Amino acid sequence: xxxxxxxxxxxxxxxxxxxxxxxxxxxxxxxxxxxxxxxxxxxxxxxxxxxxxxxxxxxxxxxxxxxxxxxxxxxxxxxxxxxxxxxxxxxxxxxxxxxxxxxxxxxxxxxxxxxxxxxxxxxxxxxxxxxxxxxxxxxxxxxxxxxxxxxxxxxxxxxxxxxxxxxxxxxxxxxxxxxxxxxxxxxxxxxxxxxxxxxxxxxxxxxxxxxxxxxxxxxxxxxxxxxxxxxxxxxxxxxxxxxxxxxxxxxxxxxxxxxxxxxxxxxxxxxxxxxxxxxxxxxxxxxxxxxxxxxxxxxxxxxx
Length: 304
Known about the structure:
Elements: H1 2-14, E1 27-33, E2 47-52, E3 55-59, H2 65-76, E4 88-90, H3 102-107, E5 118-122, H4 125-135, H5 137-145, E6 159-163, E7 167-172, E8 175-181, E9 191-196, E10 201-204, H6 212-218, E11 223-229, H7 231-235, H8 239-248, H9 252-262, E12 266-273, H10 281-287, E13 294-296, E14 302-303
Parallel strand pairs: 3-4, 4-5, 5-6, 10-11, 11-12, 12-13
Antiparallel strand pairs: 1-2, 1-14, 2-3, 7-8, 8-9, 9-10
C-alpha cells in the first residue's frame, strides 16, 4: 500500500497535479534542485527538502536553491520553506554545486529570522560558514548598527556541527538523520544520509561511485534518491573522463544493480550527468536491469 501511495503522488506530480495530492499528513519530500556542476537554466544545484511536523530539513544547497524554496513555499503553501523559517541544513560534502547557495540562505532576510540556522556537515563546514560571514560582513555590520529592528542579533551566523564519521547527526522532534560515508573521488569526507520519521525512511546517496553502504542503508527504504551518470553519455567521453566519472559517480547500470538488491519502494534519480544523451534516457537505462519503480527527479517535484 505504501508503494502505491508514493507512486500515486509521483504520477500526479508528472501530470502537474501535485498540489492536490495529500497521501501522508506527516512527511513529504520536496526536490529543490536536481542539477550538477554543468550549468543548466532549468535545474538548480543539488538540494532535497524533507518536511516533517511543519519543519524543513534541507539536504545540500546548490546554486539557485533558495529561489526554489521560495517557489515551493508559494506553490505548495509550505511555510517551513520560507527562507527565514529554514532552521536545519545538512551537507553531504563541500563541492561547489552542493553549497553555493549557503551564503544566500544565510543572508536572506536574516534580520527577521528568529533562530540561527543549524548546519550539520563534514569537517570544513565551519570554515565555509566563516567565509560566508566574512563575505557578508559589511552588510551585517550595517544592519546591526542602523535603526531598523533586528529580531535576533545572532541570526546572521549559523550554528555549525561538524562530523567526520558515520552515525546519527540529528535526533529530535521525531526525525532522525544518520550520516554514512560514500566514495566520491578523492573526497575523504563525503556522506550520504538516511532520514527516518514515523511514517517514512528516505535515503540520499549524495555524490558517490557504486557503494555497498548505500545499498545497505537503502534496503527497504520508502524512497532512495541516487545520483546518476548516463551510461550512453559516458560511453562517448574520452577514456580519461570515463575513468574519472566511474571513480567519482555511479553509472545507471550500477545503480540498477544496487537497487535490484536493496529494493526501495521508489528509486528517484537526481544530480544526473548525461553528456549529450537525453536526460530522460537514464530512467530507461536503469529499467533495463531493474524491476522496481524508478523516476527522474525534476526541480519542485514533491513526494508524499
